[in-house]
């Protein structure tokens, strides 16, 4: 009998080579050979020998200078399994964020490995390249204009922000896309202690790598994470939609990627003051109870929307709200979900609370955010914000070519189903009336 063992082995070996090797994740060592930052009790013992004239300045002034140099920005902290980025020699011909895809490119000749990447976030405040609706419809007079929201970020694609990115290499001055703190941190122990504090305690961190989020507490020292006051995170990328299935199949489960993230945040970031989380994937439930309602009748649509809202509130917002309650009041929380899911929840809240609902509209009344109260006594609550509309984006990119005939057919089927449903409702109402009259 022919043996396919060799083929199996070959396939497995290939799979292993191509897959992300979690064994090699850049985790913190179990023992730290030496502690670089002084503890409060030993602060006065630290030598200023190499700190030069800078040591003569009072602490507050030193800190203000360091914040100007390395703080007060939004920073990307990223980890991915990929080929390393290398700098090309030669003159740069075009500006891109961090020189990505121009002078900073992936070297596919070098094996893939875990690559750290960090830079200043240069997303545009005007939402350019972000919301499809903002670029299509703009904003109405007097309407709030949301500043570049985390889900509108295009830094990772290297798309430049003309007013921030630069300079062209070869001209004077360092690239503004990096803070360039490493040299300072390596200068001396006190420079490290002051610099590392400013780095973590005065910047907003933007985290989106699922591997980094999963292993964050084993990769970054706990005191650094505890120092972070402002945080943006993107959770559950587009491939997570199938993983959410576990929540729809078993609403009592606490064993999901979302639950793990919700448990991690209060442990890792107990001092966070501003927390902005975007859930990238579509969180609308799937399964037999949640059919596609694009061409459904009114009754089926209403029932599906009601069940969808309940399921999302329980399975998605349940763990999120437990996380926010654990963190407690006195902070700013925003949770952004995709537009299709947001519309369902926003409609439900508008019906429930009417004019009492605190709601803001953007982009000619298409996008917005509303406030959900968790505890009216201590003003604990959070914004539920409208995010991207991936479906519309895909359709817009496809231009809906070839859909015309199918749409007409679907509309005809829907109309016929609606007539049957209306007739059924009328019959039911008549039977109920007759039964009442007979009683
Ligand atoms: Zn960015
Ligand atoms: Zn830039």
TrEMBL record:
The DUF7730 domain covers 164-235
Q: What is this protein called?
A: DUF7730 domain-containing protein
What is the taxonomic lineage of the source species?
Eukaryota, Fungi, Dikarya, Ascomycota, Pezizomycotina
């Amino acid at each position: 009998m022919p043996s396919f063992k060799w083929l199996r082995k070959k396939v497995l070996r290939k799979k292993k080579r191509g897959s992300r090797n979690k064994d090699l994740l850049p985790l913190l060592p179990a023992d730290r050979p030496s502690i670089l930052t002084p503890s409060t009790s030993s602060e006065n013992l630290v030598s200023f020998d190499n700190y030069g004239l800078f040591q003569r300045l009072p602490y507050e002034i030193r800190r203000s200078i360091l914040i100007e140099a390395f703080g007060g920005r939004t920073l990307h902290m990223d980890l991915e399994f990929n080929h390393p980025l290398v700098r090309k020699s030669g003159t740069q011909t075009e500006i891109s964020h961090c020189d990505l895809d121009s002078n900073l490119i992936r070297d596919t000749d070098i094996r893939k490995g875990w690559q750290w990447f960090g830079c200043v976030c240069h997303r545009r405040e005007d939402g350019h390249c972000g919301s499809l609706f903002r670029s299509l419809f703009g904003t109405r007079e007097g309407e709030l204009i949301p500043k570049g929201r985390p889900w509108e970020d295009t830094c990772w694609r290297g798309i430049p922000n003309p007013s921030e990115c630069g300079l062209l290499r070869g001209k004077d001055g360092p690239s503004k896309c990096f803070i360039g703190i490493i040299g300072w941190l390596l200068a001396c122990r006190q420079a490290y202690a002051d610099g590392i504090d400013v780095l973590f305690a005065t910047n907003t961190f933007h985290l989106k790598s699922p591997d980094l989020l999963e292993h964050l507490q084993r990769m970054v020292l706990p005191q650094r994470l505890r120092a972070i006051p402002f945080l943006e995170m993107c959770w559950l990328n587009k491939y997570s939609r199938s993983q959410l299935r576990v929540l729809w199949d078993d609403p009592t489960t606490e064993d999901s990627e979302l639950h793990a993230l919700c448990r991690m945040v209060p442990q890792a970031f107990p001092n966070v003051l501003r927390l902005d989380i975007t859930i990238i994937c579509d969180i609308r439930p799937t399964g037999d109870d949640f059919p596609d309602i694009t061409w459904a009748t009114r009754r089926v649509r209403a029932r599906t929307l009601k069940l969808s809202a309940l399921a999302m509130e329980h399975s998605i917002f349940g763990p999120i709200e437990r996380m926010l309650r654990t963190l407690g009041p006195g902070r700013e929380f925003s949770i952004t979900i995709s537009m299709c899911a947001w519309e369902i929840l926003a409609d439900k809240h508008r019906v429930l609370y009417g004019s009492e609902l605190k709601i803001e509209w953007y982009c000619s009344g298409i996008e917005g955010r509303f406030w959900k109260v968790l505890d009216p006594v201590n003003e604990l609550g959070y914004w539920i914000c409208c995010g991207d509309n991936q479906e519309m984006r895909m359709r817009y990119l496809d231009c809906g070519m070839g859909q015309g005939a199918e749409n007409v057919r679907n509309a005809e089927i829907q109309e016929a189903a609606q007539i049957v449903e209306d007739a059924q409702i009328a019959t039911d109402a008549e039977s109920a009336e007759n039964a009442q009259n007979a009683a």
